[in-house]
Amino acid sequence: MRKLSSQKLTLGVFDHLDDAGVDISRQYEARLSLVEAYDQLGFHAYHVAEHHCTPHGMAPSPNMFLASVAQRTKRLRFGPLLMLLNLYHPLRAFEEICMLDHLSRGRLEMGIGLGALSDELGYFGVDWKSARERYVEISEIIMEAMKGGTLVHHGRFFELNGVPLTVAPYQRPHPPMWLGVNRPESAAWAADNGANVASVGPASSVRKVTDAYRMHRANGAAPASARPLLGMVRMVVVAKSEASARQMAASAYERWLKSFKFLYERNGTPTPPFLPASFDAAIQSELCVAGTEASVRNALLRQAEEAGVNYMLCQFAFGDLPVEASLYSAKAVQSLMMADDSELVRA
What we know:
Oligomer: single chain
Structural class: alpha/beta
Helix content: 40-55%
Order of helices and strands: EHEHEEHEHHEEEHEHEHHEHEHE
């Protein structure tokens, strides 16, 4: 197998916290127990998505859930991926970011984004036609607030006159920033600002994003010493046999897919073209990796090499996977980090 051509691969965890078919309080507790395990196993960070009015996201206030994560972990970094800024007043978003950063003593990863589904924003009265411009303005206000002092802003959506900023982030100048980037043309802003990126899609598609990011960064003014994380999301299920892994993953994927499609089907919205319509399609498109420890290791390394990523966001818990199965997969992937001949490393 070819070795990674440049940098070693860091491992993190991604989570939609989609409906698992159990009482939600039990699901929260089960997920927090998994997060504690991720902390003990040495994963770099835990990233949780934000969704509303859908079983695809049962933690609609990710920052509230992450406050519990801060108290239940010691080393694990964490953050929203992404925090849907259109649903926050910029001052409220800034203050919550600062609080989480201090609650964790500087372990927050700051993911911000627009969101992919207009229906979710529409339920809150946000017009999708102006959502991108509004998102950009909110993100600019937040980054300005990170500098401290008194905040003044005159924009299309927000008017802030002499606001005293009495809190500041623990990490200076601000927590590491994350963006969801799935198109090469969107990589420029991320590269200019030294943001980390997370992508979804086949390795060949992700490669277009990472190449664009690195090319733009090489031609830009971002600090050469910084090492941004360029990541991609993969659902990962490991079992003692290929058949067992695929059987568990297939069942869980079908439930996850049903949750994903909930709002699209309810409102007659076409599902995204990148969404695999079946488990077999998810395997074919590389969204899901299922098998034995050896086969999963080979698949992750091969895809990381092809995609040009240095960060793998493993989604161990999805659909109705039992907690024990998710934990088994996490431990198996952790063993890859500890193997002497592995290109995967502890963060």
